[in-house]
Amino acid sequence: MIESTKERIGEAINHSLSRLNAVVDVSFEFFPPNDAKMEETLWASIQRLAPLRPRFVSVTYGADGSTRERTHNVVTRILNETELAPVPHLTCISATREEVLAIARKYWSQGIRNIVALRGDAPPGAKYAPNPDGFAYAVDLVRGLKSVGDFDISVAAYPETHPEAPSAQFDLDYLKAKIDAGATRAITQFFFDTDSYLRFRDRCAATGITASIVPGILPITRFPQMQRIAQRCGTSIPASLVHSFDGLDDDAQTRQMISCAFAIEQVRTLQQQGVQEFHFYTLNRSELTYAICHALGVRANVAV
């Protein structure tokens, strides 16, 4: 009996270690800078994170489609000046079908084969309304992109349900429709309740979604900013996390330490549950993302 128990414990430990030692893929998200100082910060962050050999780096489009040219410029520079795989975001907002497809064709001609396809959000205070001459929703955009070329397409997923969805099941069915239309993977909205992601992953599997559900990880740089973003996108913030940052408005160093510790615990818990892909919302900063990747075993010039 004792030997049998030891064997079971040994098998459990080996299973956990094998998961922790599994190859981890990471990707990073950046946004187009709007001034020279922000551009300097962006490129310093790209150079810092590039040696970690991410699967790809995505470049946002602006929620209302407002950064089209800046997005294209950043994508082109990454393509021309680095060995990274740039992945532009495309949205349905503020453009006709032909305008969007023309952008897609241009990316295809440049050798870009990966795109993040999103509906996009209306400007603050406005309600989303499809462009009558455009793609109405992300599922339509996915189909349109596939008509241009065999793009590897990532779409959005919401572990805590999209704030505009009438129900969690509706949201899940819509995700499946995007995958069935040709998307390769789903990248989740950031979350802090790890169990919400794990439950969502189980529900995806039960619905017949076999594509990767990549967790989106947001290292917290400024807590009030994160709270505003979380409120808009329906992400819950655990009371324990709020308490951890309480009273640290003027203590950036301690905030950074707490943020890093929380995110490392989050990704390690996910890794123990078999997650091997992570997408980081860097906010154009490298320090926290680099440290979290190090904890995951993703390191420069070292085989993982």
Short overview:
Helix content is 48%, strand content 14%.
Textual characterization of the structure:
- By secondary structure, the protein is an alpha/beta fold.
- The protein contains eleven helices and eight strands.
- An eight-stranded parallel beta barrel has the order 1-2-3-4-5-6-7-8, surrounded by four helices.
- Helix 5 links the parallel strand 4 and strand 5.
- Helix 4 packs across helix 5, helix 5 packs parallel to helix 6 and helix 10 packs parallel to helix 11.
- The chain is globular and about 50 Å long.
Keywords, separated by commas or semicolons:
304 residues, alpha/beta, 8-stranded parallel β-barrel, 11 helices, 48% helix, globular
Largest sheet: 8 strands, parallel, barrel
Mean pLDDT: 91
Order of helices and strands: HEHEHEHEHEHEHEHHHEH
The helix/strand class is alpha/beta
Strand content: 5-15%
What is the tally of helical segments?
A: 11
Number of strands: 8
**Cα separation of the termini:** 38 Å
Oligomer: single chain
